[in-house]
Specification:
Elements (H helix, E strand, L loop, with lengths): L6 E2 L2 H9 L5 E4 L5 E4 L1 H7 L3 H4 L8 E2 L12 E8 L5 E13 L2 E10 L2 H12 L3 E6 L4 E4 L1 H7 L3 H4 L4 H7 L4 H11 L7 E9 L2 E14 L4 E10 L1 H50 L3 H28 L7 E4 H18 L2 E8 L5 E4 L1 H19 L3 E9 L5 E7 L7 H4 L17 H12 L2 E7 L2 E9 L2
Parallel strand pairs: 1-6, 14-16
Antiparallel strand pairs: 2-3, 2-7, 4-5, 5-6, 6-7, 8-9, 8-12, 10-11, 11-12, 13-15, 16-17, 17-19, 18-19
Bound molecules: adenosine-5'-diphosphate (ADP) and magnesium ion.
Magnesium ion binds next to α12.
């Protein structure tokens, strides 16, 4: 906002003031020829007075707009000064126009950007936060690279133009543009915040947008700035924490209920067996068959409840040094039996020079391998190969056991959920196998990785070596 200003000062008085002023000052005539400069100016451009005087100011100075001489007022301009060779520095310039004996002159005082301002500008350009500086008419004065990315705008497309117009012209996606326009049309004072979710390359992105007023007393500048922050990860973590809390509560209830179910089951099972014997003695084979079915179903319930208990209240882990190979050998008959029922062939591959010994709980580890092999066999349905492969890990302080199947693979939308308790895609599944495996691995200090494609799925069990 230019302030009307009239500087009528005798030229000598002006020189006296200028020599005692700490900032770089240059005096030019109406044609832009340099009449005088002070010592701070000479220091700044690294030249002597006689090398500067009489030359055109454009040899030292570039300003984006044409300089308008001869106006009796103060103006603020932005420009660049040539300082020693090709070195240009950014500067704010205050220009005053005055008269001495009807000869007008122009006093240019330089306020070069300080190192702090330069560093701040660099910082803003490197920030992951999107920042847009707006003047009081919502015209874009500056937009950093992060904001350009979030808004999908090029700097030169939007600079010095009202942001609302650019939003309309560049056809930003609906909820985003709507919220942004609402923010821009909010009263200039006070902060406002909004959040918007949008799809970027098929993934949901959550952006928080805040608008703040700014006022610079020094230059009289009044405007606002927008801060755009990607809060996708925070929101997804919050969601996960809420879900974990829910599951933890569910787990506690489940543990209590499971106990209550198991005890009566034991007595029902006992009495059914007694009845079964009696029926057999009486030759009621058909009825005895029913009892057999009931007992089988009861053992299914009992197993389910057992898994349930393990999940919600894992027994104390007994960590010892165990041989992975020995653990696998012990459960191999069970795996082979299950595999035979599904026409699946079991291969064991050992890509290791020595037999790995890990720190784990052998019984729990068996459960992990059994669950993974069972899933692999079930995924193949009928026929195929199950490969159990031992390899050295990276770094060498661990061993990896891969359980590889030739099943149909796991679709992406299923993959997200497979470790969740009770998630199953099987008619008779419990959905507890993988979540138990994960829980056990956490306690052993290892982890499970999954990779899946059309050729099948590989579950990799990473174990710390002893
Ligand atoms: N090897 C595999 N191939 C394809 N899908 C699998 C595999 N292992 C697990 N899954 C998927 O993960 C789900 C959860 O497995 P799990 O927790 O063991 O429960 P359940 O076996 O009772 O379904 C399965 O229902 C299945 O959809
Ligand atoms: Mg399973």
């Amino acid at each position: 906002m230019p302030i009307a200003f009239h500087l009528d000062m005798n030229f000598n008085q002006l020189k006296y003031w200028m020599e005692r002023f700490s900032r770089a000052v240059m005096i030019v005539d109406d044609r832009g020829i340099i009449l005088d400069v002070n010592r701070p100016f000479q220091r700044l451009v690294q030249l002597k007075n006689h090398e500067i005087k009489g030359k055109s100011c454009t040899q030292f100075l570039t300003v984006p707009a044409q300089l308008e001489w001869g106006r009796n007022q103060m103006q603020w301009l932005k420009g660049k000064l040539r300082c020693g060779g090709a070195n240009m520095i950014k500067t704010d310039i205050q220009m005053l126009t005055g008269n001495d004996d009807h000869r007008s002159y122009h006093v240019l005082t330089f306020y070069p950007a300080t190192p702090f301002e330069n560093i701040a500008a660099q910082l803003i350009s490197h920030l992951h936060l999107g920042i847009v500086l707006l003047d009081e008419r919502n015209c874009v004065l500056e937009i950093n690279p992060a904001a350009r990315k979030y808004l999908g705008m090029e700097r030169k497309e939007v600079l010095h133009q009202p942001l609302e117009e650019s939003i309309a012209r560049l056809q930003l996606p609906e909820p985003f543009s709507e919220r942004l326009i609402a923010l821009l049309s909010s009263p200039a004072e006070g902060c406002r915040r909004t959040e918007v979710e949008q799809k970027v390359k098929n993934a949901a992105q959550c952006l928080s947008i805040t608008i703040h007023p700014v006022h610079d007393r020094f230059s009289g500048f009044t405007g606002r700035y927008l801060i755009i922050e990607n809060v996708t990860e925070i929101r997804s973590l919050e969601k996960q924490i809420r879900r974990n809390n829910r599951l933890a509560t569910l787990g506690q209830i489940a543990a209590g209920t499971a106990h209550e179910i198991r005890n009566p089951l034991t007595s029902i099972k006992g009495f059914l067996q007694v009845i079964g014997h009696r029926l057999k003695e009486n030759g009621q084979y058909k009825e005895q068959g029913y009892i057999e079915i009931m007992l089988k179903e009861i053992s299914r319930i009992s197993n389910l409840v057992g898994e349930f208990l393990l999940l919600s209240k894992p027994r104390d882990v007994r960590l010892q040094t165990v041989s992975v190979f020995k653990v696998l050998k012990e459960i191999l008959p069970i795996i082979k039996n299950e595999a035979m029922l599904h026409n699946v062939q079991v291969n064991i591959e050992k890509n290791l020079s020595s037999l790995p010994v890990v720190v784990a709980d052998g019984e729990l580890l068996k459960q992990v391998f059994l669950n993974l092999c069972k899933n692999a066999i079930e995924a193949m349905g009928d026929g195929g190969e199950l490969t159990i492969r031992l390899t050295a890990g990276e770094p060498e302080s661990k061993v990896i056991v891969d359980i590889v199947d030739m099943g149909p693979g796991i679709p992406v939308h299923v993959m997200e959920k497979i470790f969740e308790p009770f998630f199953t895609t099987k008619e008779n599944g419990t959905g507890l196998g993988l979540s138990i495996c994960q829980q056990i691995m956490k306690e052993i200090g290892g982890f499970i990785r999954v990779s899946s494609g059309e050729m099948g799925t590989t579950f990799s069990v990473h174990l710390p070596l002893a």
